[in-house]
Amino acid sequence: MRSRRSPFKGRQFTAEVILWAVRWYLQFPISYRDLERMLADRGVAVNHTTLYRWIQVYAPELDKRLRPHLRMTTGSWRVDETYVKVKGRWMYLYRAVDARGQTIDFLLSAKRDTAAARRFFRKALKQAHTVNPRTVTVDKNAAYPSATKAMKKAGELWRFAKLRQVKYLNNIVEQDHRRIKRLVRSGLGFKSFHTARRTIAGYEILAMVRKGQVAAMPANDMPAQATFIANLFGIAA
């Protein structure tokens, strides 16, 4: 759904330039200073601090606008957490993919416990592109049995959903972490939890685009992706 008020109103640069920069930063392992030089090569002088502000505004906006167009994922969930450093402290990024490697959802959390696992499952189950899982494959983290048991009791999770704590079956999600980790490393860390949350939302939704999870958008067709995203924001690519 397009916003009546342009999200680019008052910006010094055009929407086309902003969306180009945002898409490239969120898809490729580059720093803000790298992107500043890339834009300069195209004759556009943008300070790296301005690029940072664009990501903070438009990464979550991309996430919001692309989610309604995601293809349905399957009921075989592979769930795992990876680590992300925020202001010198390790945080936990909960992530899930289905048996085909399609991203189900993600959640950044300061803690790795039953409450965090339950928040993640609730967030994933609320999405239009997900289904109540038949199987949930996890590692040996004791928080998962506790969280799923409580959710079944509360009617939040299908009572016949099978929890499998089999590490080798989770290779698919562990490998999928690598893409996000490469992007995080290139960004040289996060200064706050909210900065990390907004940026990672952009990383994850553009990863879904690259996996071909957006209906009617070819996975590796960059011009088609640019046009589709421009249309979401009500502008011409």
Compute the gyration radius: what is it?
Answer: 18 Å
The proportion of residues forming helix, as a percent range, comes to 40-55%
User: Residue-averaged pLDDT, rounded?
Assistant: 92
Total domain modules = 2
Point out poorly predicted stretches. Answer: none
Basic shape: globular
- CATH-assigned homologous superfamily of the largest domain: Ribonuclease H-like superfamily/Ribonuclease H
Structural category is: alpha/beta
The total of beta strands comes to: 5
Q: For the largest beta sheet, what order do the strands appear in spatially? A: 3-2-1-4-5
Please identify the oligomeric state: single chain
H-E order: HHHEEEHEHEHHH
CATH class of the largest domain: Alpha Beta
How much strand content do the residues show?
Answer: 15-25%
CATH topology description of the largest domain: Nucleotidyltransferase, domain 5
